[in-house]
Amino acid sequence: MTPRKNRLSRMLVPAAAGVALACAGGASAQSMSDVQKAAEARGLTTSDLLAAAKTYTPSGMKDEYLIFSSGGHSGQVFVIGVPSMRLLRTIAVFTPEPWQGWGYGVGNEVLAAGAVNGKQNLWGDTHHPALSETAGDYDGEWLFINDKINARVAVIDLRDFETKQIIKNPLTISDHGGTFVTPDSEYVIEGGQYAVPWGADYAPISEYKEKYRGSVTMWKFDRKKGRIDESKSFAIELPPYWQDLSDAGKLASDGFMFMNSINTEMATGGIEDKKPPFEAGVSKNATDYLHIIDWKKAEKVYQAGKVEKIKGFPVITLATAIEEGLLHLTPEPRSPHGVDVAPKGEFIVVSGKLDPHVTIYSMDKIKKSIAAKKFSGSDDFGVPILDFDSVVEAQVEVGLGPLHTQFGPDGYAYTSLFLDSAVARWTLGGVYGAGTPEPDWTLVHKTPVHYNVGHIGVAEGDTVSPDGKYLVAFNKWSVDRFFQTGPLLPQNFQLLDIAGKGTEMPVIYDMPIGVGEPHYAQIVKADKLKPWAVYPEIGWNPAKQELDPMAPKPKMERVVRSGSQVEVFMTAIRSHFTPEHVTVKQGDRVTWRITNVERAVDATHGFAVPAYNINLSLEPGETATIEFVADTPGTFPFYCSEFCSALHLEMVGYFMVEPAE
Amino acid sequence: MAPSIAERLIGPRVALDERAGRTFRFGAPGFFLLIARVLILVSLFLPYWHMDLVAPQYPDNLHLTAHINHLSGDVAEIDGLNHYIGMRSLEEAAQFERSYGVYALILLVVMLEFAGWIHSRWAVLLVIPAMLFPAVFLLDLHLWMSHFGTHLDPDAPLSSSIDPFVPPILGTGTVGQFKTVASPGIGLILSAAASVTMLIALFFHRRAYLPLVRAAKG
Predict the structure, then answer these.
(1) Which of A312, A507, A530, B143 has the maximal Cβ count within 10 Å?
(2) Closest-approach residue (CA) in chain B for A644
(3) CATH code for A65-528?
(4) Which fold has domain A540-658?
(5) pLDDT in tens, A307-361
(6) Which residues of B touch A (CB under 8 A)?
(7) Start-end ranges of CATH 2.130.10.10 in chain A?
(8) CA-based nearest distance A647→chain B, Å
(9) Strand A137-147's sheet: what is its strand order?
(10) Is pLDDT larger for residue B154 or for residue A636?
């Protein structure tokens, strides 16, 4: 040990010891001077090497955390490892994706359920993923995500990372206040955004106040079935205020949920008619309204049948909501974005984009004000407005353009600052005050990020027990951070090390996202997930997560004909399909069942048929069924589209469609 | 009167008073045979033989384990790979042995039970089959492996790129890109220990009963 110690002590960059030791494991001839030489050659500083030591993940080492990121207008979800910031997977959700076969024979029924007024809308704008929770903590079982463009919600099963359900909201056409889950995932919250008449029916915008409506939908999640149960879901009618982000209460605020709104002005735009454009009209008032909803009370009201069926869906009307006392408003700084509930549930943090403060509301004060009816008035629709001063706990000046807040385990809160392009660390008060050396409700530090940060994610930072350690800034612009990939640039996910206290929270990694523009993302401890390595049994139907009784089995492959119906029972194994010749007549209705009978991890087979727009991804054990009319005559070599084995190229067959006479 | 054939077969009986105070002398053969029987019975529930197949794309290796009555481990995966070289499915190997192995071993245990009652040299005949069992098991395994490895389907995808082969039944070998590592299972080790125990039992058997046989012959 002595020689190595001497060598280490001579090093100018002792912080790089981790890197050197990792290297030393591979080849003992390497030394710290090699590290120094390599660093000098690339112009790396000590802090760069330190960042590398904190993030570099050698082959085979696994990540401690996983980011489940919205994919923005890619309509997907991205799974990214932390601290390596490696993209591990995309999950196809609202958008067809050929690698997973999604929309090309796999998941077609799931996608079809997302049709809007009977029309397929095969893209999505995913914004806010929500991991399922048990007692307010991520349980690693399910993931929900919204689609802003068409007000849809998807359910993803984290055993196989596959979308199982897409549900279209019948009441509205855009959503932004979702998805968020209640502490035991009883409900998945979907708040509408741009107000429309119910069901996005037509009504002239001059009738905005009378006909246009906001809403929040409480989708009941049936954990056993792993699906949203539409028959036990309901919605609450809200004023047409363009409700924005929402969050479910927890612990001290359990049973409540909170929603921002940005257009309490009820501006209707019309720049072409010399009316104030939306950007001005919507930002006119100094304050908008924080919506405080007692969802447990609303659930009782719904169960008592005090609802109106609108578009076939049970809705608690605004009048009922007011009468039952389940909806209250309170002023909030104008044009707010995030509303985020602190870990113990007693504080609700709101950021107004155009106000340099974060405003912290106290649940205790809210409850007392509701009980004492401390109203400063009511809005045009008669919704009571809680007196601002009676419910506010504190305001902290954090910087320009505050958007979203996440929490650490130690009493720090973190807020993204869009205009400052920075992440602010500030201290909470109350019971959290003792955790930080700085005084309560104080800005501690701002770390610049690159650039125009939107959401941020702290490891488990929106749960009842945040982990801290890592913060990821989901930046909208990357400008000069990466190679100029033409005029369309990737977004930039920046990893910050927040394990230290005070002013210590450096950026330690940049990850370009060149697939879509992510919004929110959640960061979960990787060991909370229990994914399958292969499907549990051969012949598994992932859409139902059960064994398919009709799944083709080895030695029982066959082609069954009855009239113009042809049923194919096919298996796939390295490196052949059985059968390899399938001949049908033009116009035959073909039901093609195919099972990947492999049990080896990663032995996925593809099944690609030309001219028929078919490509399946069949993971080990998976069975899929595709149905189509053989309308195009010809000779079509089908093949395995995953490089499965040395004889992958030979994994082929012929689908022959004889022309009709 | 000269002893009958049956009497010569089962050997001299030991009178109770003769046994008294010489518990070890006359108890040892039966005791060690009992241990051997227990070892064999326990081994029925344990793996007899393992083979690990080592290749880069299988970081955890492929495993094959032979029990007296079944194969376990990555049988389907190994079969899947073997089809490339035209080797028959492992499930087709040693079907008879796997079907009747347990009964055969129980028969051997019963024979050992009887051996304890026979005080003549013929007891050896009842012990030897059980004693040889581990060797027979390995020999049988070797014969099956030779048969499978040297009778490859000439029409298999890779039949032209591999020569017939017989991987060693113990130790390491090479088949294609795989290194094979074969080792005895705990069941086989117990079975071998039973064989040693039988040898000890026979030693004490001879010490206890040979003098009596000689005395009876006068």
Answers:
(1) A507
(2) B57
(3) 2.130.10.10
(4) Immunoglobulin-like (2.60.40)
(5) 999 999 999 999 999 999 999 999 999 989 999 999 999 999 999 888 999 999 9
(6) 74, 76-77, 80-81, 84, 157-158
(7) 65-528
(8) 9
(9) A130-134, A137-147, A152-157, A162-168
(10) A636
